[in-house]
Amino acid sequence: MGWMADETGLGRNAANFVPLTPLSFLARAGDVFADQTAVVYRGTRRTYAEYRARVSRLASALTARGVQPGDVVATLLPNIPAQAEAHFGIPAAGAVLNTINTRLDTDTIAYIFGHGQAKIALVDTALLPLAEAAIAEMDGPGPEIIEVADREAGFAPSGRYTEYEALLKQGDPDAPWIMPQDEWESLSLNYTSGTTGRPKGVVYHHRGAYLLAMGTAVTWAVGIRPVYLTIVPLFHCNGWCHTWMLPAVGGTLVCCRDVTAKNIYDAIADEGVTHMGGAPIVLNSIINAKDADRRPFDHVVEVYTAGAPPPAATLAAIEPLGFRVTQVYGLTETYGHVTECLWHGRWDGLAQAERASIKARTGVLMPFMEDITVHDETGNPVPRDGKTVGEIAIRGNSVMKGYYKNPEATAEAFKGGFFRSGDIAFQHEDGYIKITDRAKDIIISGGENVSSVEVEGALMHHPAVSLCSVVAKPDDKWGEVPCAFVELKEGRTADEAELIAFARERLAGFKTPKRVVFCELPKTSTGKVQKFELRARAKEL
C-alpha cells in the first residue's frame, strides 16, 4: 500500500492552506517594500505603505456605504491611480470588481450596469456625462456614482457627487481586508466586446488571477522592482492582471492616462520604464513617432503585444529602437494572455526578416496553463504540420468561471472539457500556434474587438439601406478598421459621409465604419453574402 495510504491527520488547516488571491501580494508589499515607490502618475508618487493604506481606506469606506461581500462595484476610469487602487480595494471589501470599457456607447454601459447590478460606480469626471446618460436609460435604479476627479490632468470635481478623495477620508487606513474563504470566489466581472449581440459577463476567480500574475512574473522574467507602464487599459482583462502582479515583485506602476508616443517615450526616459504591454497600434505609434516626441534611453524595454497578430514588418521596425517585443495571445475569457511566442537561442543567428517572421507566431502555452491546442470540428487535435487549420482550444487555471447569468453560453464554451476560443489557427511541428483568422468575422481595431454583425445592424436602420455587409479593411494605424459594403433600396440615395455619421450616432467611435462602398453584394446560391470576397476587395481599397 505504501506510506501514502495512511494520511491520518494530514488534512488542510489554517497553517498549511490559504486560498490564493492577488490581494496577498499588496498585503505583503506594504511591509516588505514599504518605502519603495509603488505608483507614479505625473506629479503623484506613492510608496507601497501609502498604496496599501489607501486600498484599506477604499475597502472600509465601501463597506460603510453598504457594499456587502459578493456585491458588484463598477469603474469607468482611465489608467489612473484610482483604477489601480480599485483593483485591490474593491475585492478587499469582499466585492466583485467590474471595470467597464470607457469607449463604449451609453446603451451598452446601461446594459452592463443593469446586468452586473453594480451598487456603486467610480467614474472619472470626464466620463460623468457617459455614466449619467447610461443610468438615465436604465429601467431600474443605477449605481451610486463616486466621482474621481483627476486633478493631475486638470479635472476639478463637478461638486455633484461624493468625490473619491473624500470617500477615502471616510475610510480606515488600518482596516482589515475581507480575504476570500475560497479561492474560487469571484474576483472580477469583465464584459466581452459583444461580438455576437450583447456583451457577455466573464467571471474571474482569485485563484486564476493569482496564478496568471505569478506565471507572468516568472516567464517574462520581470525580476525585482521592475518599472511597468500601464498602456493596456485596466478595463481589458484587468490589464492582463499586470497591476495585480506588480506588488509581488515590488514593481512601480507608472500610470498613463493618454497613450501617445510622446507619453511613452517620456515615461521610459524619465521613470526608467522596463516593461509595458500594448496592441500593435501602440508599436506603430512608437515606430512612427515625430522626432520631437522621441527621447533617448540606454536600456532595452520588454514589451508584450496582443490584441491582433503584429505584422512581421512592425516587429522588424521596432526592435532597433530599443524594444524587445514578445507576442502573447488570449481572450477576456482567459484573464488576458495564455500563450507567448517564447524565444529560443537557436533562432538568434537568423536574418532579421526570419526572426520577425517567427516573432509573428502566436506562440506556445504559458507555464500556469495546462493545454492549448488546435482542434478540428470533432474536437480532436489537428496535425502539427503548419497548415491544417482548426479552432484554438484552451484548458488551465486562468480560464474563466463562466459567463454571468448565462449557463447556456457557458456550457457551449466549455464543450468537451476545453474552452472553445472561436479563433482559427494552425500549429507548427514545434507546437507554436499561428492564428489565421478570427471566427465570427470579428474585426480587431486598435486592440478592440468590433462585431461586424453589430455594425451591420446599426447601418440597416438607415432608411436608404437595403443590405449591408461589414468586413475588416487593413489600416496602417489601427491594424484593421470596419469597412461597409452597402446595397441601397431602389430609388433611394445616400452618400458615404451620411452613412458614417449615421453609424457614429449609434456606435462607439472605434466601431464606426471608416469606409462605405456602394455595390451589389456578392452572394451564394442560398443568398448568403460572400464575406471572403468583400475582404479581398477591402484590401484593394
From TrEMBL:
Origin superkingdom: Bacteria
Keyword Lipid metabolism: yes
Residues passing through the membrane, by range: none
Domain AMP-dependent synthetase/ligase per the UniProt entry, residue ranges: 28-404
UniProt cross-references to Pfam families, sorted A to Z: AMP-binding, AMP-binding_C
Record PROSITE patterns: AMP_BINDING
Domain AMP-binding enzyme C-terminal: 454-528
Keywords of the record: Fatty acid metabolism, Ligase, Lipid metabolism
InterPro entries, per the entry: AMP-bd_C, AMP-bd_C_sf, AMP-binding_CS, AMP-dep_synth/lig_dom, ANL_N_sf
Alphabetical list of PANTHER family matching this protein: ACYL-ACTIVATING ENZYME, BUTANOATE--COA LIGASE AAE1-RELATED
Family: Belongs to the ATP-dependent AMP-binding enzyme family.
NCBIfam families assigned to the protein according to its UniProt record, in alphabetical order: PRK08162.1 (NF006020)
Record-given protein name: AMP-binding protein
Organism: Albidovulum litorale
